[in-house]
Structures are given as structure tokens and as C-alpha cells.
Amino acid sequence: xxxxxxxxxxxVQYKDTDRMGVVHHGNYITWFxxxxxxxxxHYGMNYYKMEEQGLLLPVLHAEVDYKKSAHFDDCVVIYSxxxxxxxxxxxxxxxxxxxxxxEYKQMDTMTTAEPFGELLAKGSTKxxxxxxxxxxxxxxxxxxxxxDALQNMMEK
Length: 156
Fold this sequence. Notes:
The protein is of the alpha+beta class. It has helices spanning about 25-40, 45-50, 100-105, 140, 145-155, and strands spanning about 5-10, 60-65, 75-85, 90-100, 110, 120-130. Strand 3 and strand 4 form a beta hairpin. The protein is globular, with a radius of gyration of 16 Å.
């Protein structure tokens, strides 16, 4: 399996915080979704194009382990990688980490071997490939080019 993490940097928006100025716990799931979407885009698996092909990837299970709070205007990186995959299922792991302003400005790559920064939260999501009727499909049968790309990327 690939140990490469995709990294997506962002700043905490005011709308994501509660009255105490802390990021609301539910926003980490949204951040993980952003990380997953950007991971897929980076590796040529654009969600929009997959949906045009009749492929959906609903979340079956989501898990978050909170470590520290993020606050308005903090610089944060969402790290995402595929943990396991099969023709029917896909599991992602994530880490949300706070970085310095300097690190934020210097970050110019989309991938890294090792996440860095102060760990805020980590988690995972499990998904299943389905068609528009929400019936499970085998990715290697209905979209072999996407499955081959996933397989090739994971072997690197």
C-alpha cells in the first residue's frame, strides 16, 4: 500500500467556529470530505466526472478522534490517504494538523511521506461504490480505468 499522504492546506474560517472561538466538532468531518475530494482530484478521480459515469461513493462509516482545538484563522492542513481498497469498498484515513504561518506560506507540494504539525484530529471513513440506484457495483467492472489508476497509485 502507498504511504503517501495528500495534503490540503486551509485557514479556519470564522463560520466554522462556535461562540467560544473553537472549531465546532462537526466541521472536522467536512474537512475530511474536502481532503478526500482533493485527494481524488489530485489522482485523476474527479467526483463530478465519476458521478457523470454513474458512480457514487457514499460514506458507510465515519470516525473522528479529537486531540486539540483549532481556532479562527489557524493554518491547518488536512492529510488524506487511502488505507484499504477493493473493487467494492474504499477506506480513507485523515489527520487535521495545525501548522505555523511560515509553514503555510512555504507549503508548495500536494503530497508528503509524513504529516507534520500539531495533531488536532484524526479519523477515517469507509465507502462503497454504488450506481445511481444505490446498488453496489464492482469498480473494476464498471470503471476499470478508475480502478486501474487506484491500483497503480497504491502500489507506488
